[in-house]
Amino acid sequence: MATHQLFIDGQWRDPVEPRLRPVINPANEDVLAQVAVAGAADAEAAISAARRAFDQGDWPWLGVCERATILRRIAEAVEADGEHLARLETLNAGKTLGESQGDVANVVATFRFYAALLEGEGGTTNTYAPAHVISLNQREPVGVCALIAPWNYPLLQLAWKVAPALAAGNTLVVKPSSLTPLTALRLCQLVEQVGLPAGVFNLLTGPGEIGERLAASPEVDLVSLTGGATAGGKVMRAASGNFKRVALELGGKNPNIVFADADFDVALDQALNAVYFNAGQVCSAGSRLLVEAGIHDDFVQALAERVRRIRLGDGLAEATQMGPVISAGQRNQVLGMVEGALAEGARLLAGGRVPQGEGFERGFWLEPTLLGNVHASMGIAREEIFGPVITVERFEGEAEALQLANGTPFGLAAGVWTRDLARAHRAARRLRAGTVWINDYNAAFPQAPWGGYKSSGIGRELSRAGLEEFSELKHLYLNTSPAALNWFGV
């Protein structure tokens, strides 16, 4: 069984206080590896290494083409190791192998996108300046960045942070989730191979308290977290000490709106994919399905029939359509929300139980679940589920659909299904969400920004906006004909 160390200042090392934590396969509860548990002293060492690399090293001031070359090398290394990374992701996170392979492809695309974007970067001339003045806007690295990744997309969402942070010239302290650190550790090994200077990339495995310590450090200039609202609040409070930059992606309660004129079969299929992909453990999951009254009953009946046929199993099995949830605690939380909804009057139309029988004796299994007769006042209609559960609400007309859709504290994503493009455009403008999909769902790629409104977070990942998130904007003013002002009338 593999034992993994911390990576600090270009070296793999044991924590100051030697401790290990087992990493569990959620499909069968087997121990996959033992991983070092970082403590306060290790966090300070990683921060100090990143600080030295930024303040005293050459990395932040390399030319953009040199940094682009490094990013391309990382992309090539990930691509070459793709099958191993995908298998490791499935073992550790429980998702299907096809889902993991898609994640790896997206990681490669993300590093390549930022490499290409870098090569087109340059200062912007301010043409309104006087003739004797050269006025330039230019982007520079923020400094030391703490990057805290979630357990649902351990590799992909880490890459969404690492690629632009490195592209901008920052130095990093990376902290993956303690539940799913294995692909982050492998990425660290691949990054080590491409020749980054010591201290530019540091990795700590350990509990959430390590993330809070990173956020609180006066030597850290930016903290980027993808996680839940509770973790986001802790990080934001900790970061206030030195007013460091904060970027937070905190999940959502995402409406998926199906109007009566939508393509019935396509909307039905996509409604399944919007939630049961990765067992619903997706920040943008369309778990709140809003269906227009005219097709509601037929749509829900067809949906229930399809949900009951979803093949649950180990993610490495070719026939599997949905794997387990990440942990017993997550399963219990989801089941508790389902029970609460039933107590409030929701109807269980499919699933809602722990499956029994061969193959399900061990592991964190939960049947794909469908709840009908859900109303906006119910807790399950307002709170993020983060599991394989669809709730269905009925609406009458466009105005009510939008009122329901916007009626939560979140605003990460939304879907609209209609053949009426004018209606789609009106709805998209009125939905308070960072991404609105029209006649599609859960599509994401590096060129498009990602982030949310309201309680879904602060800032944007991916696209040029993601690069700007990890950079500071500087104004350079050069007077080519300096002249005295005769300040004291001389």
TrEMBL record:
Pathway: Amine and polyamine biosynthesis; betaine biosynthesis via choline pathway; betaine from betaine aldehyde: step 1/1. Keywords: NAD, Oxidoreductase. The keyword Lyase does not apply. Signal peptide: none annotated. GO terms for molecular function: oxidoreductase activity, acting on the aldehyde or oxo group of donors, NAD or NADP as acceptor. The active site is at residue 249. The keyword Oxidoreductase applies. Residues 14-475 form the Aldehyde dehydrogenase domain. Coiled coil: none annotated. It comes from the Bacteria. Belongs to the aldehyde dehydrogenase family. This is Aldehyde dehydrogenase family protein. It comes from Metapseudomonas lalkuanensis. The lineage of its organism: Bacteria, Pseudomonadati, Pseudomonadota, Gammaproteobacteria, Pseudomonadales.
